[in-house]
Specification:
By secondary structure, the protein is α+β, with helices and mostly antiparallel strands. It has helices at 21-54, 62-67, 79-92, 107-121, 124-140, 197-203, 254-257, 261-266, 330-349, 366-370, 405-421, 437-450, 452-476, 530-544, 550-562, 569-581, 601-641; strands at 12-15, 96-101, 142-151, 159-165, 172-174, 188-196, 227-246, 251-253, 271-287, 292-299, 306-310, 312-316, 319-323, 355-356, 395-396, 481-486, 492-497, 499-502, 509-512, 520-525. This is Portal protein.
């Protein structure tokens, strides 16, 4: 798909000025030729690998097809199954973007940016773009997708960022001098598209068309008898930019400050330092072999928005070479097909060993004997000849012994395919010689590790993809608007960005969620998707739920929470409230804490009984103490009557010194004069 490149197209600025289109086109033609001279041999080999693995009737080469003309040529494609194991594993474990605030950034805005990137990444077309590129990377060693922009709707000017599929990666070529794996250092790139001559004229009615009879070797790649090649040409141009450091520590382009220089001066902010730097700007134009059809236009970002994804990429003698998992399994697959075809052919020949006959005996009946492979005649005729043994009757020869080595050779070739792809029986779900679950998992892990470089290379490509998206966010989402973002758990929400409000305290206008400011770094996290993690968490919670302690109750709630089934929301909420009321979960924000638990009536009765028993025991103890003191008082009185001195005894508690004991004894009148109590001790007052 060719990007829209009109002057008012989203993502593009005004047309580049000051460059001769003739010179630009001449430079483009030279670069286009250099790219295809460099990449075409590898593209041809990679395309053959992809066709070998995924298209029917592509595993028998021309020489073998000619040598086996008229004989069975079966294809038992075992390479495709191994490659699909790698690609489908990638679909279950999609790398995710992680955005962190850097210089001048804000952690909350980092979350918003991360949500925007995940929102773009979660679109089905965006995922398909990655899946297609990864399929080509595994099968042929190279895939690619692109980043583009478009208007959100026909009635406005808000733009959105998209990831687009490139169905045929062998139409995209990069600068041969680029060395970085993601080709971010490429100075130019091309995306070629072929148009029918009639379609080309309809789309660009004023374009030059080279007649087929005037096509030369120099422009043969551009003009065909029925087709015209049109290229989308991306290139970088280094331009000098003056930047300034302000006294508040911020750095800006000098051109951006010209309009607000007076406002900065009023705020006391002045320019502290200046310097000129060289910065790349990205341009794009649509070209034919004769002229520039559209553009050039300046791209909003600083990267060429084409993302390559490699299978295996190595540098040999300074030249990059790439290949996929198919390359080294092709010979083993060809041998397997040959051996299986020969096996079936030999097996089919067993019932049809040839007849031995005298030519005169079957004269006139040759067609009957020649059609024995396809027909089953009830009678075979021959001419009897008494002069020949057995009257010249034709006889069938004994069939040759079936070669068991064919089956063994096919098994060996099958093992060779497994070794070449790194995918063994356990990785494909088939039973092998492993019996324990641990051994099966270990063999599956061997298959994952053997091909992990493909997943790792995809993560590297996606990191570059996320950097392109992060760079474009500042330029594309630059107006006040509502944006859909996606959280870690896949939940969607809408946030307002670039919204200007007035601070009530200062009276100054401030911008909320300003996506045009600050720097942010992007990384990639690789692992199971959130859905897979939920399933694994539910399984772990189910095992913990057997615990009879409160931990088991919380685990049961966690199990219910991680289930993804309809009509479970009420069950989840009821389980949560139950645990909150029991004090095992914290109440949600704004939710009233649970009331204190009501005491158990049985416990209350037991406590009251224990209290009554304790009070009775205390009363009995106090009564016994009083009786002991009364007895001592009476004994003292009796000893005093006998004139025997008695030892001093303390009075009962709470008894006044001149007050006789109570509890059976009289109490003196409060108004009577104090005197010796009746029966008092001698010598006492």
């Amino acid at each position: 798909m060719m990007a829209e490149t009109k002057p008012d197209s989203p993502g593009f600025a005004t047309e580049r000025q000051g460059v001769s289109k003739e010179d630009l086109h001449k430079e483009m033609l030279q670069r286009h030729k250099e790219c295809w001279d460099f990449w075409k041999p590898q593209y041809d080999a990679a395309r053959e690998d992809v066709e070998f693995a995924f298209t029917p009737d592509s595993q028998w080469d021309s020489w073998m097809t000619e040598s086996r003309r008229g004989r069975p040529m079966y294809t038992v494609n075992r390479v495709r199954q191994a490659l699909k194991q790698i690609t489908n594993d990638q679909r279950q474990n999609r790398p995710q973007a992680k955005v962190r605030a850097a210089e001048g950034g804000d952690s909350d805005l980092a979350e918003v940016r991360q949500g925007i990137i995940r929102g773009i990444d979660s679109q089905i077309d965006a995922q398909r773009a990655v899946d297609t590129a990864f399929l080509f990377a595994v099968g042929g060693g190279y895939g690619v997708w692109r980043i583009s922009t478009r208007y959100a709707d026909d009635g406005g000017f808000d733009q959105v960022i998209e990831r687009e599929e490139i169905a045929d990666p062998f139409t995209v070529v990069f600068d041969p001098a680029a060395k970085k794996k993601d080709r971010r250092d490429a100075r130019y790139a091309f995306v070629d598209t072929k148009f029918a001559r009639s379609e080309f004229k309809a789309r660009w009615p004023n374009a030059k068309v080279v007649p087929i009879d005037t096509v030369t070797e120099s422009n043969l790649d551009w003009w065909g008898e029925h087709e015209v090649t049109v290229a989308e040409y991306w290139y970088k141009k280094a331009e000098q930019v003056e930047i300034v450091l302000l006294t508040d520590g911020s750095v800006h382009e000098a051109a951006d400050l010209a309009l607000i220089e007076d406002e900065l001066a009023k705020a006391g902010i002045t320019i502290q330092r200046r310097r000129v730097i060289e910065r790349d700007k990205v341009y794009q134009c649509i070209v034919s072999g004769a002229e520039i059809l559209e553009g050039p236009n300046e791209w909003a970002g600083k990267y060429i928005p084409l993302v390559p994804c490699w299978g295996e990429l190595i540098s040999v003698k300074g030249k990059d070479k790439f290949f996929g998992a198919t390359r080294f399994a092709k010979d083993a697959q060809r041998m397997y097909n040959y051996e299986r075809s020969t096996f079936i052919e030999t097996l089919a020949d067993q019932p049809y060993s040839p007849f031995m006959a005298d030519a005169a005996s079957i004269e006139g009946y040759e067609s009957q004997y020649q059609s024995l492979r396809t027909r089953r005649p009830p009678v075979l005729l021959y001419k009897a000849n008494p002069g020949l043994p057995n009257g010249g009757k034709p006889s069938r020869e004994a069939p040759p012994a079936f070669p068991a080595a064919l089956a063994q050779a096919a098994a060996i070739s099958g093992d060779d395919i497994k070794a070449a792809t790194g995918i063994h029986d356990a990785s494909l779900g088939a039973r092998s010689n492993e019996t324990s679950g641990r051994a099966i998992l270990a063999r599956q892990r061997e298959g994952d590790v053997a091909n992990f470089d493909y997943i790792d290379n995809l993560s590297y490509a996606l990191k570059y993809d996320f950097e392109i998206l992060n760079d474009l966010i500042s330029a594309v989402y630059d107006t006040e608007r509502q944006i859909r973002i996606v959280g870690d758990d896949g939940a969607e929400k809408v946030v307002a960005v670039n919204r200007t409000v007035v601070d009530e305290q200062t009276g100054q206008a401030v911008t909320l969620n300003d996506l045009t400011q600050g720097r942010y770094d992007v990384s990639v996290t690789v692992g199971p998707s959130y859905t897979t993690q939920r399933m694994e968490a539910a399984e772990a919670m189910m095992q913990l739920a057997n615990d009879p302690s409160p931990i088991g109750m919380v685990a049961k709630y966690g199990f219910i929470k991680n289930l993804d089934a309809p009509m479970l929301e009420d069950v989840r909420e009821a389980a949560r409230k139950l645990l909150v009321n029991q004090g095992l979960l914290e109440p949600a924000e704004g939710e009233q804490p649970p009331p204190p638990p009501q005491p158990n009536p049985r416990d209350v009765a037991a406590a009251e009984k224990d209290g009554a028993t304790a009070r009775k025991a205390l009363a009995e103890a106090e009564g016994q103490e009083i009786e002991n003191q009364v007895a001592a008082f009476q004994l003292g009185a009796q000893m005093g009557a006998l004139g025997i001195a008695a030892p001093s005894q303390p009075l009962p508690p709470a008894m006044a010194p001149n007050q006789p004991p109570q509890g059976g004894f009289f109490v003196a009148d409060a108004g009577a004069p104090a005197g010796p109590a009746p029966g008092g001790f001698p010598g006492q007052p």
